[in-house]
Amino acid sequence: MKERKKAVALAGPTAVGKTGFAIRIAEEFDGEIVSCDSMQLYKYMDIGSAKPTREEMARARHHLVDVIDPREDFSVARYQHMANDAIDDIISRGRLPIVCGGTGLYLNSLLYDMDFSSVPEDDSYRKELEAIAERDGSAALHEMLEKSDERAASLIHPNNTKKIIRALERLREGEGSVRQFSDISRENADHDFLLIGLTRDRGELYDRINKRVDVLVEEGLFEEVRALYDMGLTSENISMKGIGYKEIIDHFDGLCSRDEAIDNIKKNTRHYAKKQLTWFRRYDKMKWCNISDFGSDEEAVEEVISWVRRSV
């Protein structure tokens, strides 16, 4: 059996501080960062996706940031391929890959041997379902399946997003009742991930979220969305279903005021952070760091670095 190559995966809810931790790990271990964020992939969407700044990008090389046109469809299958290529490239140059982000479906595609070879020729429905999973969680998809095929829903765990999506696709394709799928339990055969989860006490995290939204608005979030809107992008585009974009498009479409849009971004981001934590807590091997337990972020970073040092 071949030896799996070491890699780090740094996950956690939005606004917890993942980018800063990933950069410090990269500096300490001669590493490079592979984004695991479904919004930072897109060009022209810099503010709303809270992309790393130029200064941060200069401190550590980043992959899969600013690489996809927002008018272009994108799927988890394509992410899996691009991210694994980036990880292999980093390893081939003797450096440490650090996967960093909060998109659970993307991380899952790297941790496990999820086979996307049997995707339908028209994958627009799959992308729509993936967007629902990212926005509302796998439970929302499971409810959709339960309404269409109660027996199939009873056979599939509500957290197994890949199986739920495939079941809904089969129903859409007219296959009738869904066959039970084999469990996704085989770990990635090539990469051995040290899984690190970052969190903070809820009050502190929610305060950080609210303040970050205010900062993004000050930095020009409404103007960024307006520019995308003027490019012809609408709420129908997968890229514009992200939090911070869909709420402002609602404002442009006259469905809410500017202040209501800002409040909705904060509320939806807080809900999303809760769903992210629920997702990541499924991973038994995840080593958790509650940053709020430390005297400073730097003390927490040093603790995480000590974990990486013992692993790699």
Structure in words:
- This protein is α/β, with parallel strands linked by helices and 312 residues long.
- Helix content is 51%, strand content 11%.
- The chain contains 13 helices and 6 strands.
- It has helices spanning 18-29, 54-59, 76-92, 104-111, 124-136, 138-148, 150-155, 161-172, 202-219, 221-230, 246-252, 258-280, 297-311; strands spanning 5-11, 31-35, 62-63, 96-101, 191-199, 287-290.
- A 6-stranded parallel beta sheet has the order 3-2-4-1-5-6, sandwiched between helices.
- Helix 2 (54-59) links the parallel strand 2 and strand 3.
- Helix 5 (124-136) crosses helix 6.
- It is globular.
- The model is unreliable at 175-183 (pLDDT under 50).
Please mark out the parts with pLDDT under 50 across 5 or more consecutive residues, or reply none: 175-183
User: What is the overall shape?
Assistant: globular
**How many DSSP helices?**
13
The Rg value, from CA coordinates, equals: 19 Å
* Class derived from helix and strand content: alpha/beta
- Beta-strand segment tally: 6
Order of helices and strands: EHEHEHEHHHHHEHHHHEH
Largest sheet: 6 strands, parallel
Q: How much beta, percentage-wise?
A: 5-15%
Placed side by side, the strands forming the largest sheet appear as 3-2-4-1-5-6
The first-to-last residue Cα distance is 19 Å
Helical fraction equals 40-55%
Mean of all residue-level pLDDT scores: 89
